[in-house]
Amino acid sequence: MLRSRSTFRLPWLAAILLTCTAAHARSAGYRYDTVHSQILFSITHDGYSRPFGELHIAKGWLRFDPDDWSKSATELDIDLAGLDMGDADWNKAVLKPEFLDAAHARYAHFASTSVERKDDRHGVLHGELTLRGITRPVSLAFTFNRLGKTIFGLHTVAGFSANTTLDRSDFGMTAFRHSIGQQVAVWLEIEAIRDNHAIPPDASPAGKDRP
After folding, report:
1. What does the alpha-carbon distance between residue 144 and residue 141 come to, in Å, rounded to a whole number?
2. What is the pTM of this model?
């Protein structure tokens, strides 16, 4: 029995589709969605409460391989001047030189150094945070939430949740020791949009080189 041309083409078509699928699963570049990404922090106030503040990512890039997290890396800048404590005067107080000192160093910078995978959804992102001109190692426990297209199919999005605790004195914030806590709890809710042009050409696989 003779086979049609379309029958002979099917193996080639399948091979092409498999190749495209495999390529899609490999490491890809992303830019941070600065609208749908948030950074929240909390610190004790005279022992009465733990008020929250909010910051936003100004810009940044992510390299993420869902199959091999060790190839992933990221760098991002956090806009300190965009701080929101829920009150204008409180914002000004936290932005003063005693604390964030945003007038002299508006952006905090994070650059990853390695990624440690715990299981299919959880890991630890190791890196360096530069705040107030001081650089310290920081590790963030994170959850990989989802990788997929938006409901309208416009973008491929990777979503993560992360948290860490910082000691403010490590970054030179030593004022009001007896009324403001030393330990700052930090939470990040992150969405990143696939964009292979977002990664600088000189970025290292581990994220050690800054763009």
Report:
1. 10
2. 0.83
